[in-house]
Task: structure prediction
Amino acid sequence: MSTYSKMSKLKQLIQQLPKAELHLHIEGTLEPALMWSLAKKHNIDLPFSSVEDIQNAYQFNNLQSFLDLYYQGADVLRDQDDFFELMWAYLCKCHEQNIVHTEIMFDPQTHTQRGITYDVFMPGFAKAIDKAKTELGVSVYLILSFLRHLSEDSAIATLQEAQPYYSMITAVGLDSAELNNPPSKFQRVFASAGSLGFKLVAHAGEEGPPEYVWEAINLLKVDRIDHGVRSIEDPKLMAYLKQHQVPLTVCPLSNLKLCVVDDMSEHNIVDLLNDGLCVMVNSDDPSYFGGYLNENFYALVDKLSLTEQDIVKLISNSISASFLPEQQKHEWLTRIQHICPS
Result:
């Protein structure tokens, strides 16, 4: 079998297998066409002349350069229908790519700072989530994420303001600019969220050092680490992550687009997997970074000689590391085994 045929077969397998996506920012799924149409709807002047002009602007040299455009784009989200459209478009993509379960981060402060309240975006999200469950068979959990470049007091207020919608929220997270915003800055709010029964996740070890991963584990008591690719720089941390099977929600195209790696052939996800860590593939902010979940897998197949066993393990890890009930995890893992009995 030729190399092309092998790669094509692996890509077919990726499409066929049921998957979970655990690291996805809903605001990062805002496609240029939707940004453009919502700007027109609300009479918002964008610094772009066309949809193509927006797409061409999606070139970044670090995390901050991406975030600047990310927050600018989110400004077109103004009413419940906008948030419904945003969420529904992503969940349709999930159905198309055979993502059966997704745990979606949303950034309340991105919206409340603009005067858009929970009573606007949460009902919009809920309408799309209910529609997807009924019509597409996709299950959704929401992760309320704090912006780490803002103060912990702002995060505490954000958590308190969410109280009427706690039943819709499974976990809290920590995202935005990592450098100079260590996890230790948010100990109190994570302790509060934990006491309320929320699962806990945090971005760490993407641009920030391995010490940030340690802080997220020891001080924030997280259940999962988002990114974590720089953990490989600390052998003791690697041993801990392996022993305790702390999940790392790795985002390959994001790492490439934000210059965490210079070329996909240099990505360390297979090394992390081979070292026995619980890693999985995710798309992070797919509109901005050039691809949804399956495209991230395809990039790894093209550049890292991913094997069928690697793919099955990465996808199985996504199910195992989810916050689904154990019975549902077992059902999906059994289905994966039936498709790939080896």
Q: What stands out?
A: The two ends are 19 Å apart (CA to CA). The mean pLDDT is 96.
